[in-house]
Amino acid sequence: MSRKIWCAGILALVMVASAGCGQKPTSAPESGQQQQETVPGDQQQQTTGSGGESVSEPKTEGNGSGSDAGKETSQGNVSPGKEVSSQKPPESTAKKETIDVYYTDPEELDLKKSRKEISYKDEADKYAEAYKALQSSGNADLIPLWGKIELKKLDFKDGQITMDVHMPDEARLGAGGEQFALDALTKTMFQFDEVKSVELLVDGAKVESLMGHVDLEHPLTRH
Question: What are the φ/ψ torsions at residue 189 (nearest 5 degrees)?
Fold first, then answer.
C-alpha cells in the first residue's frame, strides 16, 4: 500500500515537472532596443530617451512664419540696394522787388504813382511783370491805362526792351488818355537803370500812333 502511494507521488512530481518545462517564459526586451509606435510622420517625431527608450514628441507644424517674420522685421520696408535720399528740394530762385507803377485817376486828369511788388526769374521776366503791374492796380481810385492791351512778346537786349502788343478797339483812349498811357509805360520801364529805350510794336509792326492821337517814337527813349 505504501509502495503505491510512493509511486503515485513520484508520478505526480514527474507530471508537474513536465508541465513546467512545456511553458516558455516570455523574454524581456533587450537593453537599448527601441520601441516604435506607428504615428503619422507629419505629426510626431521619434526621439530616443535615456535607457534606450524612444519617446514620441509632437512635430511643430507651421509655414515658417516665425523665421520669415523675423527676417521681415529686420529688413523693414527698404528695398535692397536703395538708399533713402536726404537731399532737400532746391529752393525757388525767383526774385522779388517793389517798383513804381503809374495809373490815372477816374477822370483821367492826372498820372498817379503807386508801389507794387513783383516776382521774376530774369531781366526779361522782370519787365514783363512790370507790364502786368500796369494792367491792374487793385484800387478803384487808380485806373490802369494798359488793362485791355495784350502783351504778346517781350525781349531785352543791349539796353532796349522790345514789346509786341495787340490793341483791341475797346482799349483805345482819347488823346489825353493815350499820352498818359505812353507816359505810364516809359516812367515804369525807365526806373530800371539798365533800360535805355523801349521799342513798342503793334502786332509785330511799327505804327505811327498807338491809338491814333499821339505820334509814337521808335524807339521811345529817356528825356
Answer: -80, -35
**Residues 84, 85, 86, 91: what is their CA dihedral angle, to the nearest 10 degrees?**
-150
pLDDT in tens, 37-53: 444 444 444 444 444 44
163, 151 in Cβ contact below 8 A?
Answer: yes
- Confirm if 97 and 117 have CB atoms less than 8 A apart: yes
DSSP 44: E
Which residues fall within 8 angstroms of residue 31, CB to CB, at 6 or more apart? 51, 52
Within 8 A by CB and 6+ apart from 136, the residues are 144, 147
Concatenated DSSP letters for 95-137? Answer: EEEEEEEEEE-TTS-SEEEEEEEEEESSHHHHHHHHHHHHH--
Q: Supply 215's cell numbers.
A: 505820334
- pTM, two decimals, is 0.59
And the C-alpha cell for 17?
Answer: 515537472
How many angstroms separate the CA atoms of 133 and 102, rounded? Answer: 9
The DSSP bridge pattern shows strands 197-202 and 160-166 to be parallel
